[in-house]
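Following up on my earlier thread - several people asked me to post the actual chain instead of describing it. Fair enough. Here it is, all 272 residues.
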Amino acid sequence: MKMRSEQQMMDLIIDTGKNDQRIRAVIMSGSRANLNAKKDVFQDFDIIYVVTSVGSFVSDHSWIRIFGEMMIMQMPKSDRLISDTDDGSFTYLMQFTDGNRIDLGLVQIDKINLMKRESQSLLLLDKDGIIEPFPPASDADFIVKQPTEKMFNDCCNEFWWICTYVAKGIWRDEVPYAMCMYDRFLRDMLFEMINWYIGIKTDFTISVGKCGKHFKKYLEAEIWDMTSKLTVIVTMIIYGKHYLRRAIYLGLRQKRLQTILAFYIHMVMINV
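Reply from S.P.:
Thanks for posting it. Predicted structure:
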């Protein structure tokens, strides 16, 4: 199946808004609204329909078939009843068989004051003049924020603290636990510190993207190379380096956490 073009999708989204009297305004957010964002075929269409009644849409989901043949879909709020007395919103996450994707949010018109106005937003349709004009779309909401001294110290403390959990999990041969500590907690602190490092280099004027997806663009080649390989190396260590357990044992026995951390660094350096 040939992938529909960006213009075809935009026409479909806007025409649906024009032809359905329940839809009073159409807003696009995300990277497609930002002219400075890099374009590619995997960009979602992040759309908000401002509607008279959310309940009239979610009582019968068949109406979304107008957007195309669905490969997979999620409705995050479908586990509970949605009514006009709710928070006035509903979301359809739709991946189509032709490769396009629409993340469609419904916001009830009388709850529009609760809607977060993102800096990457573009007003596509406003039948009643009810939406306050948006400034030119930008990534201002997502620019790396300068940390306070406490935030910086807390991040460092959490990183080193979680290192002990990773080490403990490896020593006990509790692989899922060790990987969870690394993937869910330790990496978060590492990424936070990289965010701030890039922020300092750029005077806190840029966004590194969701989950650090633009790290490569802003990091020195050597640091990026180590960062990108770190997960693979740590996984190798956790799953297969039996001699690491001996190093951890010696480190704990001597009550010297530095021994453990030095071994991690050593393993990274010899594998990079």
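The helical segments are 6-19, 54-58, 149-171, 175-201, 215-218, 221-240, 242-253, 257-271. That should answer part of your original question.
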